[in-house]
Amino acid sequence: MPAATIARVSANDTKMIVGSCRPESVRPLVIQGAVDHWPASTKWSFEYFRTHHYDDFGRLQLDFHGNVQKLTKLGTFIDNLDDPLSELPGFWLDKSGKPLKGELEFDPDQIWSFHVGLLDQHPEMLQDIQPFPAGIPNLLVQMPQSTQDLIRSIVGSSIFSIYISRKGTVTPFHIDHSSTHGCLVQFAGRKQVYLAPKEPQADPGKPDFDPMSEEYAGDQLQSAILQPGEMLLIPPDWWHWTKALDHSITLSHNYFSEFNLPRFLAHLIANARELPDNDTLKSKIEQCLEELQ
Questions:
Q1: Which of 54, 109, 169, 267 could tie 75 with a disulfide, CB 3.0–4.6 Å?
Q2: Per-residue pLDDT tens for 196-210?
């Protein structure tokens, strides 16, 4: 069968988890019970975000790349999850954040996720997702917060992000930045996922897509339906595609381990060379590289 089911393991099965991260046996895993100890596991819900962060502004992207966005409040977005997008209050913006000019034509099925940057605006929320599961070889979270912040500024991407999505939201096949490990933690709703070690020819979003078809045998597709409370581990440089089967709250996290540290360092150094010439920043980068090595 071309599409394999991603294995589910207990968070206590550290041998299996670490083995899935090793280059010679790398594979995705769905981990059960990994985040039961997080306050977020019983706290983060649509009603929680609506009650505590109603007035936080964010952007609803109409596609994965954010070419067209609507600026609105988190609570307003949650209030209108079941309503047509045309009824959602807010302001249309282009990718640069400027007001969109002209008439907008859009396909509601292409709506992507609402990204509000909650963890940037409210860093105290990081306490809701600590400590990171001990059995996962995550070197990043073992570093001081100042070092984590510096790494984030160098790679130009968030370490943790919260995505709130309408039912039917699709994220197309892509790989994560800087050859990092990826993980998705589901807090509300179910999410269909497909992963592959190389860029797939398949498009799970097409009506005639059949994951069992021999047509996609070479893609080495693996799939699962991520349930609330489960964590998906995504190997570095693996392609992944997701679809929200229900209204969804997902935490995304990127990190590095001893197994992909050389590749990550190569990306980090390349990104650092592109930064403005600043002696203070260079000194911090050198300190950061010393800690990583």
A1: 54
A2: 999 999 999 888 999
